[in-house]
Description:
With 176 residues, chain A is mainly alpha-helical. In chain A, 47% of the residues lie in helices and 9% in strands. In chain A, the strands form 3 sheets. Chain A has a two-stranded antiparallel ribbon with strand order 1-4. A two-stranded antiparallel sheet of chain A has the order 2-3. Chain B has helices at 4-116, 126-165. The longest helix of chain B has 113 residues, at 4-116. The interface between A and B is medium-sized, with 25 and 28 residues.
Amino acid sequence: MNKTRTSIIGLAISAAAFVGITQREGYTTAAVIPTKGDVPTYGFGSTVKEDGTKVRMGDTITPPKAVRLALKHIENDEGNLRRCLGEDLKLHQAEWDVYVDLAYNIGTYTFCTNKLTGGPGAIPRALTAGDYVGACKAILQYKLAAGFDCSTPGNKRCAGVWTDRQRQYNACMEAQ
Amino acid sequence: MIPDKILKWVFIVSWLVASTVATVQTLRLHAAKLDKAEAASALADERREAAVQLAAAESKVRKTESNLQASAAETREQIHEATQAIATERDALLVRVRNAEARAARAAMSSAATAAGNLQAPPGDPGGELLATIGREDVAEAERADLIRAALQGCYRDYEAARAALGQ
């Protein structure tokens, strides 16, 4: 792993991480509701169309358009993350990949904001304090899907969410 | 016959002229020697100054060269580390793709079994089908792209280091 962290201004998600996100999200031509209580998504988990409107049940998309939409969405997320983390922050490529992956999944607002206090989220707070390990640990806090705890053993509702958080946590810790 | 007195005076005058000329020539020779010594001394000073300046310039160039070599070595090390990280990420991604392929295969078998039992087959899993066919190629292509990017970043870094070192 790189010994030095790079300013997040110069970081962009790696191609492997992008493929990982598309692989994780899975592809659907027609809009579906991925987990109970979730909003309609299509393509690679996109919740908004290219024109910015929300995906609705019955909408369809082709794979090339879905890739472009996912990349556009990720680039947009990266911009939001740079704003909420501060451009002075330095991260490893693997850390940036993990946080972009997480933000794509939970949304940048949820990533950046603590919904209870309205202040910064747990990860931005830890990162700006220089607590990189604490930020990795905070990934595991994002385990709720429509109020349900996805880390509940044996659940079939959203066990994949918890598996993802553990994978992201492990990838983050490996970078330390 | 020339009188002895005149010869004597001619001799004296000749001797005085010869002496004066000899003295002047001696003085000129001495002055020339002094000039030569001064010129030699000045030349030596200039050579010494030039040698000092050359040594300083050479030292500066060597230092720049050494800094650039260190920077290039650091870049190579960073590219090596990035390559290792990319390989690790590729392996992890391949495991995920294999798992996705296995899930897709199980789902396909389950659909076939359901259809064979004359029950209505559930709708297909386009996501699974897509990943089963292009997942590995995507991983290989992503690895290639990341390796190229790591090398390009190293190239930019070396360029910036060289530009800073050469003061351009």
